[in-house]
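Hi there, hope your week has been kind to you so far. Please have a think about how the structure follows from the sequence. I've dropped the whole record in just underneath, so have a look:

_____
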Amino acid sequence: MNNKFVIEDLRDFREWAESNIFDVPIDLPDVLSRAADIIENMEKHIEVLQQEVETYRKRAEYLTDTVITLIGKED
C-alpha cells in the first residue's frame, strides 16, 4: 500500500472517529491525525534525502572521471 493511501485512510478514519466519538477511545482522532502527519513528514524528509543522494552520486561520478583523466595524463 502506498503511503499516500495510508495517509488518506488515516485521515478518513479520523473523520469517522470524530463523528463516532462516543464509540471510540477519546484520543483516537488525535492519534490518527498525528500518525498521518508523521508519515507525511517522513515522506518529505525521504524526498530531500533522495535528492542529496543524487547530488552526491553526480559528484562522485565527476570526481571519478577527473581522477581517470588525471591518471591518463600521467602516462
In short: The helical segments are 3-19, 28-74. The longest helix spans residues 28-74. The chain has a mean pLDDT of 89. The two ends are 55 Å apart (CA to CA).
